[in-house]
């Protein structure tokens, strides 16, 4: 989802689905925990011996909605779809319980967030929507994926957009972080966690990349319930890049 710039931040936060995060052009030294600087572990590299990527591909991955149980659970719901495709029948609510959490309480002053958790450590806030909730980034979600897929787990964070398409061409969907409307993020906020500044776009979202052709990428969107929703390559790549090029899959 996204909110117009003339809407107050307080109203935007009240509508937060926990599945949205934009990205400003921040200085790594100034903002050490911004989404663009998520920790990287293992990048996916296309082998020179691999056959050329086909012009189009579509994976038939059943859609799972994050609603109504997981108001802010786009990441774990996207992961549930990926695991189902990989042959692991895991419920999204089980994943919501198992995903690492950062229990740091929300501290506000005069309506502004002053302190909260770090999504690079674990899910921030409440995933159900009963209380304020935000998101979780690739490293904690990779840890959860590794629980089921072991060494088959691949962290694609920092790889090229073409590498994501190569992964889909190989028959494996990819959880990616973007924005709810697949445009550049517009609603940024910042707070501190143990003295480190966290810079967060509140229109962050996670979806499952399941297909592509020459013009569009196709995603399963757990928030809208849309299966194989088409998104222009340029829009998706720009949105994904703004969220720090975060992506996880398996091999």
TrEMBL record:
Superkingdom as given in the UniProt entry: Bacteria
Coiled coil: none
Signal peptide per UniProt: none
Gene3D superfamilies listed in its UniProt record: Cysteine proteinases
Residue intervals of the Peptidase C39-like domain: 59-222
Name of protein: Peptidase C39
The organism of origin for this protein: Brevibacillus agri
Lineage: Bacteria, Bacillati, Bacillota, Bacilli, Bacillales
């Amino acid at each position: 989802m996204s909110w117009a710039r003339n809407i107050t931040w307080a109203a935007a936060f009240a509508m937060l689905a926990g599945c949205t995060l934009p990205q400003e052009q921040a200085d790594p030294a100034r903002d050490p925990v911004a989404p663009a600087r998520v920790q990287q572990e293992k990048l996916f590299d296309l082998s020179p011996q691999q056959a050329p990527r086909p012009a189009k591909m579509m994976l038939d991955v059943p859609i799972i909605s994050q609603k109504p149980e997981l108001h802010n659970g786009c990441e774990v719901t996207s992961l549930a779809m990926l695991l189902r495709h990989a042959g692991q029948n895991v419920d999204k609510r089980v994943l919501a319980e198992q995903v690492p959490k950062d229990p740091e309480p929300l501290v506000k002053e005069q309506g502004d967030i002053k302190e909260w958790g770090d999504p690079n450590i674990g899910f921030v806030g409440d995933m159900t929507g009963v209380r304020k909730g935000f998101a979780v980034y690739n490293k904690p979600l990779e840890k959860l994926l590794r629980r089921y897929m072991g060494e088959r787990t691949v962290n694609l964070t920092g790889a090229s957009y073409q590498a994501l398409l190569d992964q889909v061409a190989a028959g494996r969907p990819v959880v990616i972080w973007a924005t709810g409307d697949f445009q550049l993020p517009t609603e940024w906020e910042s707070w501190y966690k143990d003295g480190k500044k966290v810079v967060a776009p509140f229109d962050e979202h996670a979806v499952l990349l399941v297909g592509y052709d020459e013009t569009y990428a196709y995603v399963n969107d757990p928030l809208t319930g849309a299966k194989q929703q088409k998104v222009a390559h340029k829009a998706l790549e720009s949105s994904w890049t703004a969220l720090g090029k975060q992506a996880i899959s398996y091999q």
